[in-house]
Amino acid sequence: MNVLLFGANGQLGSDIVRLWNDPAVTLTGVTRSHCDVTDTEAVERVIAASHPDAVVNTTAFHNLPLCETDPETCFLVNVAGGRNIAAAAARYGASIVQFSTDYVFDGEKRTPYLESDARHSLNVYGAMKIATEDVVRQANPDALIVRVSGLYGLAGSAGKGGNFVETMLRLAREGGPVRVVADQVTAPTNTAEIAEALLPVVKHGARGVIHLAAAEGTNWHDFAAAIFSIAGLQPDLQPVTTADFGGPVQRPLYSVLGSTAVPPLRHWRAGLERYMAEKHGFGT
Ligand SMILES: NC(=O)c1ccc[n+]([C@@H]2O[C@H](COP(=O)([O-])OP(=O)(O)OC[C@H]3O[C@@H](n4cnc5c(N)ncnc54)[C@H](OP(=O)(O)O)[C@@H]3O)[C@@H](O)[C@H]2O)c1
Fold first, then answer.
1. What residue ranges define each of the domains in the chain, with the CATH number in brackets?
2. Which pTM value belongs to this model?
3. How far away, in angstroms, is 176 Cα from ligand 1 center?
């Protein structure tokens, strides 16, 4: 099976490259320097040249404050880019695997969101990802939408300036109080766990929508506390509310993802321990 991967140097994309060691799968990674997904003709050329059976799109413009101030770029990369890839894949007979987000939901629910739950986003990024899901499916009926949440991976996200775990470790080392929101519950997920769970799903040719996120939710304050506990650090960690924290972006207060389609990933703490061991050698 030939798989073409867009976003190969992102945190999720690079874990797919690192962990898909399957003799039945030939994976070709594409980075932004090779092909800008907003360039319709460049996307077409790359897909035409590689004869893929499946195309995986992990690219995104997902710096949330920037999405609020620059919705045009948010639209171009996520919606137009996603459509470019899905449509070109369809023209060359390939299926499309498009990544999406827990932020397609508004957080009004208090039990895990399932694939069948109605989408209603609170911010520009989430709205653009809802549109991405829809145009991808319109352009290529052979589509799998994979919603994930709270990603952190070894490579970090260039577009977001790293990841939450590394930000917490840096703030702890800097010595001041570390203020973290305690009223937003989600499921922070190690991208390695997603990459591994995705491989059999893609090989099996799954279609529709699936949620791949760590089992159980936690709030960002308690997630930070777990990071510091594993790292043996004791900063002045202070819980704050979303209202205290302020900022231009409205976020769902609850966005844990559950699934009726695929088995749950491991507990968020297991994914975090794995990351802390692989990235920093803690606990090894
Ligand atoms: N991070 C999260 O917390 C989170 C949560 C829920 C859902 N998601 C979704 O999960 C997926 C993977 O996220 P991630 O955290 O792995 O993202 P990431 O690390 O930021 O990687 C995104 C990739 O997209 C590439 N890219 C951006 N604009 C591009 C363009 N115009 N043309 C070509 N490539 C472009 C980036 O290239 P450069 O490195 O060159 O910039 C990067 O390789 C995305 O669909 C995202 O929306 C993420």
1. 2-280 (3.40.50.720)
2. 0.98
3. 30
